[in-house]
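This section describes the prediction task in plain terms. A model, or a person checking by hand, is given the sequence of a single protein chain and must write out its three-dimensional structure as a string of tokens. No templates, partner chains or ligands are provided. The sample shown here is typical of the held-out split.
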Amino acid sequence: MLTIIPKPQRMGKGKGALSLCFANLHLFAPKTESGRLTKKLRREFPDAALTLHECEEYYLSLSAENPLAAGLDKNAVKDKYDGYLLSAKGGDLTVYAPTARGLFYGIVTLCRIKNEARTELYIEDYADVKNRFGYFDLRMLHPKHECLLSYIEEMASYKANGLIIEYEDKLPFTRYPFLSHKDFAMTAEQHAELLSVAADNYVEIIPLQQCFGHLEYVLKHPVFRQLRECEDSLGELCPSKEESFALVCNLLEEMMEKHPESRYIHVGCDEVWTLCSCEVCHAAYGEDKEGCFIDFVNRIVDFVCAHGKIPIVWHDMLEHCSEENSARMDKRAAVMLWLYAAKLSEEQVTSLYKKFSTYGMTVMGACAVCNNGGRDDQNYPLADNRLNNVDAWVAPLAHTSIDTIVSTNWSASFGMACPYGIYETSLYTLYYSFEKYWNKTADRETYLTRFLTDFHGIDTSLPEMAELLRGRRAPDYYYAIGSLSEYCTKHKSIAQWIGVSRRYEQVKCHFPPHLYAYRYRFYGNEEGEVASLRSKILAFREQLAPIRAQMESLLSEFMSEGMAELFLASRFFFHDFLEEHLYGEVVAKQFPEQSE
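The expected answer:
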């Protein structure tokens, strides 16, 4: 069975057998556009002889003969987003696309089926949504550099064509070098490599530079302390001080210089809660927080536009603005609706779309494949909520002119918070979103099985799989995958990580000595009470120790040593603290024997 994610729009099979040989490949493309396609083919078919033919259209063939006569209905993908056609009969293969990126996706699909297809095959495929973006949130903890590069390639293999990156302190700043994290910031060479890999895989990069709120990584430094709107709120900038605007301009200018090919720059501007709190802002605006916000954002928009980029702002601070203030917003900015509710209604999206488009602003959308969901310490996305949110965006995308949807993927609630699960745990919900926005009719109920086959290489036709997957639905991936790790031939360590994360949660629930520890304060001199607490502690130790050891081992595959240490501390620091200050004392406590 062929498993292709995203599911193609149309796929037909014939009865004739295939006998494809990839010893020789012929790429037909304009000379100026063939470089990235050539790189892709050489990576995927390293042993094949590749011949380039200059052509006004885009084809891949096993034959040097002109594929224009291949009998393909090119009109089927004309004017479609990233469309391609794939025809395989006998020993012949032709992949056609009207664009270079479309042919890239045709090659991606070919790579998925080349070892599985046994009979004649025809695929007509294209995207329902023009721009399908992922999100790297580097504020907290993130994968190793080589893993980041591989995930960009993998996103492209699931037909994502863009990526927003919120670098925060991981960018190699030159104007303010002290803003770069001393241990975890990229080097200039690594950053250049990241941009190069994205370009090679037709992934458009949009950098995000916070300019108003969520600036903890900047305003925590003493040199910028006076620019906080409130002394104790590290994340929000005072918009009334010229030094604030100068800081923002410097940050934006460096970000734009480091991304010369990016059409857009996301300027953030969400969740600015302390507006008009300082004396200067209050004197200038009183209680007109909306006016204060829009005046400062308009200056940012004007600065970005003057540098030839298109600014994007989050929608939340503009959502409830009056008509008067909304009309003052600079129309050159694009507004991105971030709506993450599992029960998101089409009316919620369309009403906001109408509000902003009425004022002449471009509107983009953002779902969430990993977000807070009321769980700061979640170890993987809350799957049912996230899949529902992805699904909920499909209808409004079809009934508005919104052609860009970003699958936001948060690592923490803010840069100084507790991290969510590691990035790799979100790939299940992320790749579902790419499928759904590529093909809105893709079947959610078969996604779990298809993902297990495609991503993990599990042979779901095995007899034992029927029992293991009986009754499982798409949201059950995180409950099932740990027990299936022995069947994985790909991404086995991710399956093992999710499995051990589940066991960690179960131990916390079933052996929670910290919930009983208060009794030690009141009854610490009673042997029976101490014996009861000791038994809980010893059971907890016995269960948790091997889990921690396995986590430490697995994290070395995903994160640098320092980041792995931070993640483990986020899960074990509390227990280590209690071990040092309480548990050890309880376990060691002795009572004199009592004679009758």
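For orientation: The two ends are 76 Å apart (CA to CA).
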